[in-house]
Specification:
alpha+beta, 6 strands, about 210 residues, globular, six-stranded antiparallel sheet
Length: about 210
């Protein structure tokens, strides 16, 4: 069993600085914190190709079963608009393949926002189940004050019913009063998201 290292844990979200892969990086935080045996594998999650390989493997598993989560992930990612308006799973996987074939540097990949992918809460829970054999509970409409560890989904819309997943825009990992995201730590959702309007709308806890 590897020894817990706060700095090591903080670093697990660095790929989310350039990409929107918070569903995966928050899961990495959770696994590092709650599954000591996973730490030797998790510490490699700061490597860009390692993260992309993990995402590709998960998506291929969903494709092999024609999982309805594929449509949910696609629709949610497209809802962010702009370059994601025409997002597709096949095109996303092809971009990962191209990056590997071109032997792009870690710096080149991390700076490319096209590797963003939005994960609905059920997809995050499914990822943890499939890839890490972890069962989860998803709590919806949670108050901003938290007492337990878990992956938290936040919204600027305070539990909107007009936007997908109540306006969910980002996931962070919460542990003992500290929030982890982007390779940094924060004391509150508002500090992390740089705005007082941000609230927790989901908590995904490992059981």
């Amino acid at each position: 069993m590897s020894i817990y290292n706060q700095t090591e844990m903080e670093s697990l979200g660095v790929t989310n600085v350039g990409w929107g892969v918070c569903g995966f990086t928050s899961s990495f935080y959770a696994m590092y914190d709650q599954d000591h045996s996973a730490r030797p594998q998790i510490i490699n999650a700061t490597q860009a190709y390692r993260v992309l390989a993990e995402i590709k493997t998960y998506l291929r598993m969903l494709q092999s079963e024609n999982s309805p989560l594929l449509k949910d992930i696609t629709t949610f990612t497209q809802s962010f608009g702009g370059k994601f308006s025409n997002f597709s799973i096949n095109a996303y996987i092809e971009e990962i393949n191209k990056a590997a074939a071109q032997n792009l540097s870690t710096q080149q990949i991390v700076k490319d926002s096209k590797f963003g992918i939005a994960m609905p809460p059920a997809a995050v829970a499914d990822y943890l189940k499939r890839m890490w054999q972890k069962n989860t509970n998803i709590a919806e409409g949670v108050a901003s004050s938290l007492t337990n560890s878990g992956i938290v989904g936040v919204s600027k819309s305070a539990f909107s019913t007009q936007e997908p997943y109540h306006g969910l825009k980002h996931y962070l990992y919460y542990k003992n009063g500290t929030l982890y995201s982007w390779g940094n730590t924060y004391n509150s959702v508002q500090q992390a998201m740089d705005g007082s309007a941000w609230k927790v709308v989901y908590v995904i806890s490992i059981v």
